[in-house]
Write a structure and sequence with these properties.
The protein is α/β, with parallel strands linked by helices. It is built from 7 helices and 14 strands. It has a 6-stranded mixed sheet, with helices on one face. A 6-stranded mixed sheet has the order 6-7-8-9-13-12. Strands 10-11 form a two-stranded antiparallel ribbon. Helix 3 runs parallel beside helix 5. The radius of gyration is 19 Å and the shape is globular. Bound molecules: fe (ii) ion.
């Protein structure tokens, strides 16, 4: 009897802890120095919101984002959950607030890419959502590059929308070495290069392509983070993914993988608090 009560109590405590854990996020800060940056600037990175709302209409997320006074807000995908259209509305409401803070650049994750298929259920609703998001003034990027200004810095912002094959469950589909250059020719290589690429599994390819700073999401921190080891599982159901969360420096190129702000399907976060990123780009000296 005592064992049963102990187990039930442990389960109750676990569920209460997870409910508390999933209702919070932290702000994590990174600094990237480069001789291509002339003036210090800050950008916010919001990954994998998945229709979550921190307070009414995401007021807590909006407040923390505004507090960092960003010159731009980068969103490397998965603002919604493709199979739940109510999350499109929550995502839209977040955009309504974010666009009042700074220019917003939104690239697709696997959830958005899936909905671009006209055969897909909810495709029409997604199209309507996208039209509304564009009408707000959000810049939606497919696979493309454009030069933008962050303060007085001219930089190149690129986005990569991966084919859905690259999200295959249970494996990491190999990416050809030439894939990035063929799909996304490097524009103005003399400028600081920022890349929004949802899937972090290909971090070495992004670095080799020439991105000075890449922002990824997708992994949600691996649901459970084991101290000293890292993420337990990726959304593609691969165990202990190499590029799981945090910053990786590959040949002098920075790849920052957000643990994301939302979850879906498995609402679990153990030692893996949701995060909003504040990234400072600084001159080298
Ligand atoms: Fe994703």
């Amino acid at each position: 009897m005592i064992i049963l009560v102990t187990i039930l109590l442990a389960i109750l405590i676990y569920f209460l802890w997870q409910k508390w854990e999933l209702s919070r996020f932290e702000v994590n800060r990174y600094q990237i120095r480069s001789p291509k940056i002339k003036e210090p600037v800050t950008v916010a990175v919001i990954a994998d919101l998945h229709g979550f709302s921190y307070g009414k209409k995401n007021e807590r997320l909006l407040r923390e984002t505004a507090d960092m006074n960003p010159q731009a807000i980068f969103i490397p995908g998965d603002m919604l959950v493709s199979k739940y259209p109510d999350t499109y509305d929550t995502a839209y409401e977040a955009f309504e607030g974010l666009i009042k803070i700074a220019p917003v650049y939104y690239s697709y994750g696997n959830h958005e890419s899936r909905l671009r298929d006209p055969e897909r259920k909810h495709h029409l609703k997604f199209q309507q959502y996208l039209e509304k998001v564009l009408a707000l003034g959000v810049t939606v990027l497919e696979t493309e590059s454009r030069s933008i200004c962050l303060g007085s810095n001219e930089v190149v912002l690129s986005a990569l929308e991966l084919e859905l094959d690259y999200y295959e469950k249970g494996m990491i589909v190999p990416m050809e070495e030439s894939y990035m250059k063929e799909k996304l020719p490097l524009m103005k290589p003399e400028l600081f290069q920022i890349l929004l690429a949802h899937n972090p599994a290909y971090a070495p390819r992004y670095a080799a392509w020439g991105a000075d700073a890449t922002f990824c999401g997708h992994n949600h921190g691996g649901l459970v983070r084991i101290p000293g080891i890292g993420s337990l599982i990726s959304p593609q159901l691969t165990f202990f993914p190499t590029y799981d969360a945090g910053e990786f420096k590959i040949g002098g190129h920075h790849v920052i993988i957000s643990r994301g702000l939302g979850t879906h399907t498995f609402h679990v976060r153990v030692f893996n608090r949701a995060e909003l990123l504040a990234v400072e780009f600084l001159p080298e000296s």
